[in-house]
Amino acid sequence: MADIAEEAGPRQRPRVEGGREEEILDATVEVVAELGYDRLTMDAVATAAKASKATLYRRWSTKAELVVDAISRAKGCPVPEDVDTGSLRGDLICLSCGEGGFTSEMPMSVMAGLLTALHRDSDLKKAFKERFIGPRIAVVNRIYQRAVERGEIAADVDVDLLSQTLPAVLIHHAFILGNEPTDDLVLRVIDNVILPAARGSQAS
């Protein structure tokens, strides 16, 4: 019971009144994009949001809690709605090139600010996976499941691996090669990698 209470504790902390909470969260996202997670401090967020540190700590007990709450609810990084265009290709394009997708400035700049810290900060990593990545993976899983049901994906294809391919390539281009993800790159990966692999033995 103690473990459950500890996990539920942060969610029960009092919300900031009025529209100030959204303003603080927006300011947090901007500071993450500008400074990165490692250099972000509660002082910096308080200054950007024109709020007191006391206000921040009453609502968010740690930096990780504040940052994950902010990016999970940010206007520029919305959790995608369930996408169903009728084809795997259409779904992946809609998901990756729409608002909050890989070609949007805000999600990629936020990811850049978090990337190194995710390897070292266990609290940030756990919260990020549960609250930011988790809902997005759920949408992708539904997309691929419907593709299986439509017969677009061969029975022998590793769907788990396939679903990670597009984000892996785009993140590699962005953070390893230094190339901004574009709609054209998304289409190249989908048409030359994802769809051929998805057809598997059906293509022979």
UniProtKB/TrEMBL annotation:
> Which positions make up the DNA-binding region?
41-60
Mind telling me which InterPro entries this protein's record contains?
DNA-bd_HTH_TetR-type_CS, Homeodomain-like_sf, HTH-type_TetR-like_transc_reg, HTH_TetR, Tet_transcr_reg_TetR-rel_C_sf, TetR_C
Q: Which residues form a coiled coil?
A: none
Please give the residue ranges the record annotates as the region Disordered.
Answer: 1-21
**Lineage, please?**
Bacteria, Bacillati, Actinomycetota, Actinomycetes, Propionibacteriales
Identify the Pfam families for this entry.
Answer: TetR_C_11, TetR_N
Locations of Basic and acidic residues compositional bias?
8-21
Q: Which organism is it from?
A: Kribbella alba
Keywords, alphabetical: DNA-binding, Transcription, Transcription regulation
The cross-references to PROSITE patterns, in alphabetical order and at most eight, read:
HTH_TETR_1, HTH_TETR_2
Please state every residue range assigned to the domain named HTH tetR-type: 18-78
Instruction: Name the chain's protein.
Output: TetR/AcrR family transcriptional regulator
